[in-house]
Amino acid sequence: MPDAPASPDLWYVDRFEGDLAVVMRGTFSLNVPRIRLPAETREGDRLRLVESEDANQPAQFVIDGEATAVAGRRAGEVLREMRRRDDGADVVM
Predict the structure, then answer these.
(1) SS3 at position 5
(2) CB of 23 closer than 8 Å to CB of 42
(3) DSSP symbols for 23-76
(4) Residue 21: helix, strand or coil by DSSP?
(5) What gap in Å lies between CA 91 and CA 93, rounded to an integer?
(6) DSSP 12
(7) Which element (helix H / strand E) includes 17?
(8) Which residue, among 50, 18, 11, has the nearest Cα to 34 in the 3D structure?
(9) CA gyration radius for the chain?
(10) Residue stretches of the chain with pLDDT short of 70
């Protein structure tokens, strides 16, 4: 199955490094202080950057639960397909 094109405003949490989250969109990564993300944010979550109505307030990342669920299902499908194709033999290099 081909990958769906990434939404231009959809980011994902690649990993946490101490007090920072590495948040990515395509090949672009951004180090974000964990405190700037919702407390329940986990690796793999899909995020949207939402502008504040108040010009004096910064934009905020919010978890996109639907996009996170879709990505999780897609990852599960890929893993099942890989397991189905695995014949159990050793890898020869």
Answers:
(1) coil
(2) no
(3) EEETTEEEEEEGGGS-TT--TT-EEEEE--SSTTS--EEEE-HHHHHHHHHHHH
(4) strand
(5) 6
(6) E
(7) strand 10-17
(8) 18
(9) 17
(10) 1-8
Q: Taking Cα atoms as reference points, which of 22, 17, 18, 62 lies closest to residue 39?
A: 62
Q: Indicate the residue type of 46.
A: R
Cα(12)–Cα(76) distance, rounded to whole angstroms? 17
- In one-letter notation, the amino acid at residue 79 is L
Exposed e or buried b per residue across 4-15, where buried means at least 16 C-beta atoms within 10 angstroms of its C-beta: eeeeeebbbbee
Q: In what order do the strands lie in the sheet with 10-17?
A: 28-33, 20-25, 10-17, 46-50, 60-63
CB atoms within 10 A of CB 24: 16
Going by DSSP bridges, is the β-strand pair 60-63/46-50 parallel, antiparallel, or unpaired? Answer: antiparallel
90's enclosing H/E stretch is none
